[in-house]
Amino acid sequence: MVIDLTASEKSTFFRFLFLYLGSSFILVIMLAFFYFQNEKTLYYDLTKSNMQNEVSKISSKIIFAHMTNNEFDKDYLLKTNDYKISFYNENKEKIFGNLDDEIDFTKTIMDYKKHFILIDSSTLGHLGVYYIAIKENLFYEQISKLKMNIVFIFLLIYSFIAIIGFYLAKLFLKPIKDERIKLNNFIKDTTHELNTPISAILMSTETTNLNEKQIQRIRLSAKRISEIYEDLTYVFLQNKQNKNTLEIVDLKNLIIEQLEYFTPLASKKSIDIKLQLEQFEYKINKDDFIRLFNNLISNAIKYNKIAGTIEITLKNNELIIKDTGIGISKDKLKDIYKRYYRATNEQGGFGIGLSIVNQICNNYNIKIEVNSQLKQGTIFTLKF
Fold first, then answer.
1. d(Cα 26, Cα 17) in Å, to the nearest integer?
2. Is 321 helix (H, G, I), strand (E, B) or coil?
3. Which class in CATH covers the domain with range 212-383?
4. pLDDT tens digits, 111-154
5. What angle in degrees, to the nearest 10, is found between the helix axes of 212-237 and 353-363?
6. How many Å apart are CA 290 and CA 285, to the nearest integer?
7. What is the pLDDT of residue 381?
8. Bigger pLDDT: 81 vs 349
């Protein structure tokens, strides 16, 4: 997943990653430390228990050999590599064995040069043995292996956490980037939408003697600029005062009035507008309905085919606008009311028209439905 980020987004990305990895590092280190201490204690207890068991067996054999007057086999005790052992008399002098370390007989177990030495006196002088000292050879080797295993597991887990953190950070930043792209595209599209009517006005006013066609072009361009301004004002200033100025509006007459502006636009594409309007009055802010209707009819013209048709029906408390345009694919229908979203780039626009329509419908509890087929057309139904 490759995401191009701005400088500020990169800064946020790395700050999040640093905080995430830093806190994860501390947490994993603490877990590794407590795990090591616990395992070390278990190893120590196990080693001590094994040494005690071994000494107890040897002590029992010494006592048994003495009481049964049998020979005690000393040589086999010195053949193992797991430990070293020596036997001492009453004066704490070594009788025999392969343990040459200095023994502190005041202790029962001692830590000596990275080895544990257990001192036992359970023989009670049998066969002249008063003390047995046994030194293990594996404890610190096991601890070293444990450290290596913990370090390996730590690196493995932390690498996994780092990878997850990296992708989480990018995943969290993706919506921000998407919104930034939408906003950038919106600004570009708005600039283009404003440039078209402004250019038309400037071209028409290059001469002082304006004909009817030029005057009409100026009128249409000015109307378009006014619409863009009103849409932007409605979206960004969130002007909700309109609901406080409701009035009974004759929708039939208002639709006919608005079509006077759109008829020249439809004529440019040879679009036939068919009307089936019944008298219908509805309590709504007049400007809100004009904004709603104009956005729907503007889209019906903009995305219609040459020599297409638009059917506008007002009856049974429903307003239906049907066109024969390019249509909208089913997978995009769920997103058409999102701000800045454009289902196609074939025509101009900046992706707020249907968002405004949906907002107005929600404000007045008007149910809006849409049915569309690619290359067949789109039907918008408003149920009052």
1. 14
2. strand
3. alpha beta
4. 877 788 899 998 888 988 899 998 887 778 788 888 899 889 88
5. 60
6. 9
7. 95
8. 81
Phi-psi region of 188 (alpha: psi -120 to 50; beta: other; left: phi over 0): alpha
How far is it, in rounded angstroms, from Cα 178 to Cα 180?
5
Report which of 197, 189, 239 is spatially closest to residue 360, judged by C-alpha positions. Answer: 239
Give CA separation, 253 vs 79, 247, 275, in Å: 113, 14, 12
3-state DSSP assignment of residue 370:
strand
AA identity, residue 375: K
* Chain length of the chain: 384
Q: Judge whether 382 and 360 are in contact, CB under 8 Å.
A: no
Place of tokens 């067996």: 57
What are φ and ψ of residue 208, in 5° steps?
Answer: -85, -25
Cα-based distances in Å from 123 to 64, 95, 214, 311? 10, 14, 123, 112
In this model, does residue 302 exceed pLDDT 60? yes
Cβ burial 340-362 (10 Å sphere, 16+ → b, else e):
bebbeeeeebbbbbbbbbbbbbe
Rounded to whole angstroms, how far apart are CA atoms 288 and 107?
A: 95
How many CB atoms sit inside 10 A of residue 70's CB?
Answer: 10
Give me 344's structure tokens.
Answer: 């196609």
- DSSP-assigned states of every residue in 111-175: E-SS-EEEEE-TTTTGGG--EEEEEESSHHHHHHHHHHHHHHHHHHHHHHHHHHHHHHHHHHHHH
Q: Which pLDDT belongs to residue 14?
A: 78
Question: Locate tokens 């020249």: which residue?
Answer: 264
* Domain ranges within the chain, ordered by starting residue: 7-142, 212-383
C-alpha distances out from residue 306 to 90, 258, 321, 326, 329, Å: 118, 22, 18, 11, 20
